[in-house]
Amino acid sequence: MISSKILLVLLAFFSIVSFLTEDLCLGGMDNDGWKASPELVVKLMQRHSETNYDEQKVPEYTLPDPLLMSDGTKVTNAQVWRAKRRPEVLELFRTHVYGRSPIGRPQDMTFKVFDLERRALGGLATRSQVAVDFTGKQNGPEMDILIYLPNDRKKPIPTFVILNFGGNHTIHSDPAIKLSGSWMRPGSGIVKNRASADSRGKASSRFPVEEILKRGYGLATIYYGDIDPDFHDGFKNGIHPAFDKLREGKRASDAWGSIGAWAWGLSRAMDYFETNADIDHERVIVLGHSRLGKTALWAGARDERFAIVISNNSGCGGAALSRRRFGETVGRINTSFPHWFCENFKKYNGKEDDLPVDQHMLIALIAPRPVYVTSADEDLWADPKGEFLACKHAAPVYRMLGAKGLGIDHMPGLDSPIKAGNIGYHVRSGRHNLTEYDWQKFMDFADLHLVMSGQSGN
Ligand code: GTR
Question: Residue 153's pLDDT is what?
């Protein structure tokens, strides 16, 4: 018979061990942390010989120091970071990477709530849909925000905001969600670049709406194509022509690309949240997957009203360090997607070492607010290690601002999230995707950090 005292001691021992394996990332038996599967590396290198997936072939590189001003002065305290270096780094990203977006809320922008249902999803949620007319003109560019807020929680509600790839009606089978009339990329349920009713709910595996509501969070989502359709048309459609200032009929080399536009749209959604008393606008978490993960990081870097920023499998031009040239490179992304970044970014095709920034500095711009970055085991195109290293090299800025950064130096094991510091990270089993596992970890991170820091927007 084991006495209850011994049982208690054993229980305490095992909970300490499990705490350590999660937070010091011993990841079960995997003390060395995550490494790409050698079989996968061989397979990918055979399939795409022009792409590097071999860690041994990552070139030597030196990262720019986020705490060193362009004039060579060292940033030694939080005041200098805030007053001088942060604006300088932001300006470098505007000039060389994402381009310059219009500043602030457009004067004539209007919000119209065209749907309000207090007994949505069997009474679990209040659903609303809001039309945002960016220029205040009926026939001008417009985005629709779909919002679910839990009914059984005290208002205001901390809320996730996420852009989606297929239209708001794809995130859930709720038949009252407006079927998007915007331009769509070809795919199932799409006829002549428009959504048909067949596409309702088709992305629901990426949006565990009920789970989010049950954990006390709201969810707001917007179709990214409402802000700018994702194809290169010389910036004639979407939001760009309404706000672009041309010089002699031409766009400037630092004019905003599509990522800049999508991120700007997220800030306009925040403008709306500030007018809705049921949404806790001081606890809005901006999140995105893949190209929209790049977008979430840029949105959170530019707009400090976002309390937490989450990048899911964002890769090149997102959380991954460009200088590693592992998986997708600057040259590759600018060739495949010439409309995502500003024109100046193309100067760095094959010349990553000349960039005055790297992506750890994008994460540093979010400091000291909590940021969570994820990778996926099989998503070598997005360079999991490069995503982790960007978090690690952003940490000195967090520490200078009095926040704990990552708290570790090497990659955690598979499925072993790091969440105690203001920089969180996990590498999940499986492919490039946004899964329920990812959402559970985002909510764990938000539970921990929204309570602890009680972020205030500004
Ligand atoms: C890929 C692109 C990535 C990533 C992804 C996505 O084709 O190379 O940078 O953004 O698309 O957004 O799905």
Answer: 96
